[in-house]
Design a protein that fits this description.
Helices cover 39% and strands 15% of the residues. A six-stranded antiparallel beta sheet has the order 1-2-3-4-6-5, covered by helices on one side. Strands 7-9-10 form a three-stranded antiparallel beta sheet. It has twelve helices and 13 strands. It folds into three domains: 109 residues, no CATH class; 84 residues, Phosphorylase Kinase, domain 1 (2-Layer Sandwich); 172 residues, Transferase(Phosphotransferase) domain 1 (Transferase(Phosphotransferase), domain 1). It is globular, with a radius of gyration of 22 Å.
């Protein structure tokens, strides 16, 4: 067991932020899933000897969550997760468990077993952009861009925003930058699409700054083996389709609808659709792709016509239908079988009424011409289930 004499020792080899990233890397190696930003906030706070009340008061990401939720739900499940992972990695014994009091000790033991601490800090972290946006955290990286969390130091309470830096400095990237910023400016007028706040060039790089949607991606709730109730799935589909109706009416195809890009907003639990880097304007022959020319970063949600570079509004409908089926079955899309026509076989894996099943089947048909042509028609079908039509 961990001796009490070692619990209070804090290693000087890394900061709490670096230690949080170290644990995140370890979790990802074992599970291919990253810790949520809220979980990392709790780790950083605990490593500074903060109580959950102090974490709530001092960490911007934890601010707004009640102390009981942070401790009894997020913290409790976080220690269970870390215990399982550190046991599997043989960092702690089978009769031990990770708790707030021994977290530094567990990290030190991992380092003593040869596990590497995080590499040098990203030079963007801490940087002040345009005398206003202070970079605080690296969120995600693709072949196309790096995306960061930042604080707006020009406004009261230093609200969060998102800063995206395009990696390439080519003429093609300049065209993509112009197109994405134009689309974001048009779409950001919707309450559940992040608003474009600024665009600029600095040191040869293109930057976009847009509103931060505070909340967690629904990917956190789509847990394998834990299907959702039908009523909750219908509400989710309706929520997403309401946003896509606006997008499609602007002659825009999102092309990258998947659970990581759907944020459940903390303030009202409404869904916010993010990341328009892969959008295609229907009346334009030029696409703005992130990692592949056909657009989209998570292949499980991409329909066949988009995979060959011919997306349509019904391609977004396919992705939404796949998410609905995933929620109902508690299975990843790749785990499902297909029939001789290429259509998914899933009804036997879910408790679902025939009306909803019929709608989902139509949303994800292999033949795009037989799907709902856009979000307008799909939302109308879903609304009939709730009596909202």
């Amino acid at each position: 067991m961990v001796s009490l004499s070692t619990i209070s020792l804090k290693p000087e080899i890394m900061t709490p932020d670096e230690a949080s990233k170290f644990l995140d890397n370890l979790v990802f190696q074992q599970t291919t899933e990253h810790l949520s930003r809220l979980e990392q906030s709790i780790i950083r706070g605990v490593l500074q000897s903060w109580t959950y009340k102090e974490i709530q008061a001092n960490d911007p990401i934890a601010r707004g969550y009640c102390v009981g939720y942070l401790g009894r739900y997020v913290g409790y499940n976080l220690w269970k997760k870390l215990t399982k992972i550190l046991k599997k990695a043989e960092i702690i014994g089978q009769d031990e468990r990770v708790v707030a009091a021994n977290l530094w000790d567990c990290i030190m033991r991992a380092l003593q077993q040869g596990m590497q601490p995080p590499k040098s800090t990203d030079p963007m972290l801490g940087k002040l952009m345009r005398m206003r946006y202070r970079i605080t955290e690296h969120l995600v990286s693709t072949d196309y861009s790096d995306t960061y969390l930042a604080e707006d130091e020009n406004l009261p309470d230093r609200p969060f925003c998102v800063v995206k830096r395009l990696k390439s400095q080519s003429d093609k990237t300049s065209q993509m930058y112009d197109r994405e910023s134009r689309v974001l400016y048009r779409l950001g007028k919707h309450d559940r699409i992040p608003e474009l706040l600024a665009r600029f060039e600095e040191n040869g790089y293109f930057y976009l700054v847009y509103e931060f949607a505070e909340g967690e991606p629904i990917a956190q709730e789509l847990i394998e083996g834990k299907p959702w109730e039908e009523k909750r799935v219908i509400a989710l589909l309706q929520d997403i389709l309401e946003i896509l109706v606006f997008v499609h009416k602007q002659d825009i195809i999102h092309r990258d609808v998947h659970p990581q890009n759907l944020i459940e907003r903390k303030s009202d639990r409404k869904i916010v659709l993010i990341d328009f880097g892969a959008v295609k304007e229907i009346n334009s022959s030029q696409n703005s792709g992130q990692t592949k020319s056909h657009g989209g970063t998570q292949q499980e949600y991409i329909p066949p016509e988009q995979a060959i570079g011919s997306p349509r509004p019904c391609s977004d409908i396919y992705a939404i239908g796949i998410i609905g089926i995933q929620a109902l079955t508690g299975m990843r899309p790749r785990q499902l079988r297909v029939d001789s026509k290429g259509n998914l076989i899933w009804r036997d894996r879910a408790k679902v009424c025939s009306q909803l099943a019929d709608i989902l089947d139509k949303m994800v048909l292999y033949a795009f011409g037989d799907r709902y042509p856009s979000a307008v028609e799909a939302l109308e079908a879903i609304s009939q289930l709730t009596g909202d039509s």
